[in-house]
Amino acid sequence: MVTQLTSIFPSENNIPQPYQIPTPIEQREYLINGEMKTWTGPLNPVLSPVFVKEGEHYVQKLIGSTPLLTSKESLEALDTAVKAYDLGHGLWPTMSVTERIEHVERFLQNMRATRKEVVKLLMWEIGKSQKDSEREFDRTCDYIVDTIKAYKELDRSSAKLVEEQGFMAQIRRVPLGVSLCMGPYNYPLNETFTTLIPALIMGNTVIFKPAKYGVLLIRPLLESFRQNFPPGVINIIYGRGRETVGSLMESGKVDVFAFIGTNKGANDLKRLHPKPHRLKAILGLDAKNPAIVLPDADLDNAVNECITGSLSFNGQRCTALKILFIHRSIVNEFIKRFNERVSKLKPGMPWDDDVTLTPLPEPGKVEYLTELVDDAKKYGASVINENGGEHQHTFFFPAVVYPVNEKMRLYSEEQFGPVIPIVPFDDDEEPIQYVLNSNFGQQVSIFGTDSKRVARMMDAFVNQVGRINLNTQSQRGPDTFPFNGRKDSAEGTLSIADALRVFSIRTLVATKSTDSNKQIMSSIIRNHESAFLSTDYIF
Ligand code: G3H
What is the set of domains in the chain, with CATH numbers? Predict the structure, then answer.
């Protein structure tokens, strides 16, 4: 297998022509105040997780470089965002909903034209398969379409006046201010845009810093951002987090902090803000979602869902199933079927047909996963699948580790990669206690058919996690469903409709329902004297 793994990395001329990157892409552009600036300072090399064979050696492919901006440029971006917001009086926050939607629609039209380029970079930068990269791109476009639809609905429902206890009022959602949006490397386009687009459409101004990996793929979109939004409304910066983002937070001028990453990263940045009560945070953080397979579960279905749940994109999803609790009476059969399925997963390069397992983008990840497996072995577990844990350069073949117990790091640490810890259990109370005592609270998956037993488990988890999946893997979608978490897993709820809410606040104009007040209100509305107090709505 080790030899087989070595040969999964291609030589340059074995890479199909449409996917080749013959010369590294040197990005020097960044976007501030509607101006495409050129960076003349140092650059950050972008190394693909893909190694390429050169003679007898394998070399990590350098695919480009991005600007290493400093706090000076990021504060410049902040200044322009603050000016564009202009204490809520800027062009963008005061623009009509219809006009703001038109800007986003034009952006989407331009974005669609970049699909091929963005997908190719997704494949090279983070090793995501072509199919999954295309899915990520299309899902993001759909998300924007649905966000526009949801915003129109929100606007329609706010167009009417309410009467209550002798008061009449109009209640609308208005922006919060300057938003800082940062996404994760595993969904560098989709997850970032699930905060960036709602932030923009609600009238906030934005500073966007791309993820740690998956940076170059934003480049094809820079011009569309520049063309379709007024100066200062969207600013895109690059560089080391601590230096660029740290100074933004320290300034106290960021009103909304949208961050998808680790809870440690979020804590470190949040505590830099001098006025924490003025900072609204929307966070998607760590998770250790368990699957619990009960004795009467449909085993084929459970195995199927646990395979995709734990190994889609090599387990690098925040929603991935990261620990499997299998009832002892069926654990051997489960493992047998699970391992059969793992052995059939195709390792390869992101552009290979039907590939499932691909190289990992994080430096040191293979060593980290090996460390977790070795730690489990120390406490009595083994790797029980053929070739499990074998690795070459950035590629790590999935390791199924059994039996896992509470002494092992794999029991509580989020591996975020292709290692699948399996814990046998006798009493349902064991996985229940695991969830209750976990630091994380994103999702759980229960597999079973005995309705009474399943219901008891569901009820045990409703106050622990954000979503309980029955006979299905954990996941974020459909994007209209609420996506959140408890404890160290999240702050705030995202869904298409919820994202519009988290990036806005309700403001109302209220008055006592007297004849003279009614007259003033109706004259304002009839003569279109206010942008806020208005019963017009978009079809
Ligand atoms: O990484 C976290 C993502 O939100 C997961 O989304 O469940 O659709 O893969 P997904």
Answer: 2-284 (3.40.605.10), 289-491 (3.40.309.10)
